[in-house]
Structures are given as C-alpha cells and as structure tokens.
Amino acid sequence: MTASTNAFVLAERCLCATDPESKLAWTHEAAERARSGQLDFTPRDVSLPIQAVRFPERPLWVAPRELLRRAIYTPQGRVALLHAVAHIEFTAIQLARDHLYRFRGLPEEYYRDWLTVAAEEAEHFALVRDRLRELGVDYGELPVHGGLWGIARETAYDVAARMALVPRCLESPGIGRDAGNDRKAPPSR
Q1: Which terminal CB of the chain, N or C, has fewer other CB atoms within 10 Å?
Q2: What region, left, alpha or beta, does residue 178 occupy, with left being phi > 0 and alpha being psi -120 to 50 degrees?
C-alpha cells in the first residue's frame, strides 16, 4: 500500500483510515514488514490526539441500553452475537494500533508485541466477518456500543492507565458478559 517502513507512520495511517479494509491492509502490511525485518520503530513527530482516530461510518454507535436484546438460540440472536464479537475484534485492532502509536519512548519489543496483537485481532475480525457474511449480514449493519473505545479515549494520556483498564478490565471480560456496561458511546468518532 505504501513505501513507508516506519511503524508509527503506518499506525497513523491505519488509525486515520475510515474503512475496515484499509485498516486491515495497513495492519497486515506493518506486520509483514516487521516479520521481514523491514520495519523501523523510530518515533516520528508526536502522536495525533486520540480524537483523530477514525472508525467506519457504520455501524451506528448507540448507548448499550439502546441495543436490542436477542436470544442466542434464534438466528437473529446468533447474528447479533457474532456482530457484537466482530465489533469487539475490530475495536481491538484499533486499540492495539493505538497502543503502538500513542505511547512513545518505550522499548521496541513493546511496539512489536502490540503489532502482533493487532495482526491477530485482524485475523479474528476477518474470520467472524466471513461467518457473518455467510449468514447474510456484514459488519456495520447492526448498531454497537462504544464502551471499549470510550475507555481508550479516557486513558489516552497514560500508558499505565490504559494497560490497567482496557485489556485487564474490559476487553476480555466484555466478551463473556455481552459487554453490558452502561457507558455511553464516545461523543465523536
């Protein structure tokens, strides 16, 4: 996609892209360059504010209480659950890329690890999205909530706060409890 070999430049391009395909492509390109030893982890400039990170226009973000509850033993319920999982995986790509991009001055292994996480989350998202498509729905067709990304926005100032709150408190437990917290969607995307 690009001639850049800088991890921070590629992360910024991924975070500022507005469609899932571009975000996946930027993530795969960076991971491949890292595997082949062609990725530079020297920070360039300062990071953009977290408000510059973009999500696709769809899905529509709503407050958790506005999401329809559907029983998972129905076809619509299974689709809704898979769509929620796809959104968690998509947001996890954004989180991993933002970890790499936002927090400067850390050891190179920190950045390599988050790039690996982003590539794995991209694979998970693609698998769940493929299954959704088999069921006649694509990612973005159902509303979602932005609780996970809301915490990322709130912790953009400090890597320790981010590490304490996002992966340890929200991301993994959110899968098992239908991410049912009452956090409102972030005010802007």
Answers
A1: N
A2: left
Instruction: Identify residue 76 by its one-letter amino acid code.
Output: Q
Q: Which residues contact 57 (CB under 8 A, 6 or more apart)?
A: 18
Q: What is the pLDDT of residues 51-65, one digit of tens each?
A: 999 999 999 999 988
Instruction: Report how far Cα 84 is from the mean position of its chain's Cα atoms.
Output: 13
Q: Is the bond into 59 cis (omega within 30 degrees of 0)?
A: yes
pTM of the model: 0.85
Burial label, 91 (beta-carbon count in 10 A; 0-12, 13-18, 19+): buried
In tens, the pLDDT along 88-110 reads 999 999 999 999 999 999 999 99
